[in-house]
Amino acid sequence: MIDLQDADAVVWAINLGGQAHRSIDGIQFQADADGAGATGSVPAVLGAQDITVYRSHRVGEMRLEKSLPDGIYDLTFYFAEPHGAEPGERVFDVLAQDRIVIQHLDVSLSRSSSVPSALKRTVIGVEVTNGRLVVQLRAVRSVPILSGLSVRARQPEAREWRLVWFDEFDYTGPPDASKWQIDQWQAGKVNDEDQAYTSRSRNVRVASGKLMLQAHAEQYQGAAYTSGRVHSKGLGHFLYGRIDISARLPAGQGLWSALWMLPDNPYQYATNCEEGSEWQGNPDCDAWPNSGEIDIMEHVGYDMRRVHSTVHNHRFFSTGPELRNASIEVEDVAGAFHVYSMEWTPQQIRVFVDGVEFYRYLRLTEDWRDWPFDHPFHLIMNLAVGGHWGRAGGPIDQSVFPATMEVDYVRVFVPRAIE
Known about the structure:
Structural class: mainly beta
């Protein structure tokens, strides 16, 4: 059974241009009874487990208002660009309480797709001080569109957790060898990344109470850059629970930071390669994506305000219109530490930033092609340079080096009731 108790925190949800709808994660969307502005619909939308809200939209500059008690709210916006709009054709700003919270949004560009795909984006910490929430969409180029909006009130954490594995990095030197292994890889092994991963203290070290993964622009074993990547395979693997990682991310075009998980047994659902086969970066082995990947946090330096989360499996992997992901607007990811969290149960995966949920993937079938997340996974933390996503915003900025991702702590929990 899917736990929907947190849906009670949603104080307002509206299906723009559409009818009332209860989503599969328990949110009750009101019908759009406003009547203001033009509406439209899309017969088919890809990239979401529940597409109903994305299939209708309101078109044009708009103002949405709702009487709410004073307090802090988190807003989730649902978009799907109608077929035919090219990247750059429709650009608009989203405002809340007269402040721009999503600037120059281009739905087509964000989804990198020429077909209608769901785009879910969360904005955190909107403060209501006068008893009224006001959301506006303003055109930059062409006219805005919006498919849905849900507003969630901040609630205290209800579940109690028990700490079962952690690293506070309260030492100096290499990462604790009882918890972490360091990858040593050549450039281009995965994702067309430009860096070589090394075990040198220049790239991977613990200092001042932090794990430092540091990228340098330097010639090293045929690569133009070096960086660090660590993982807990064989030393810390987990099946269900909660993970909290406090991290500060680097700034700069060409950087690609990630906190994520891979299966301890990558061949669990492989169909064309066996244990011992090279599988990472090998297109002839379907261990990935068949056995699953959970991306708790990904961030690219050319898009500083946004943090992304994704799951990969046999049906939905890599990039494209069916990719299951979501993003959240986070201020000052390079200037402050934020807590990136994931809760994993047999029924769902939920991802948070600073306690605010922005991504959820539900187990809707028993088919491993949809849900390979039923066996132990381990943690990976890395700072890549370039790659197909890191370079998507343009050439690598040579002025950003050295660049460092700092991790303050990693903590893994299980519900206190589980012994």
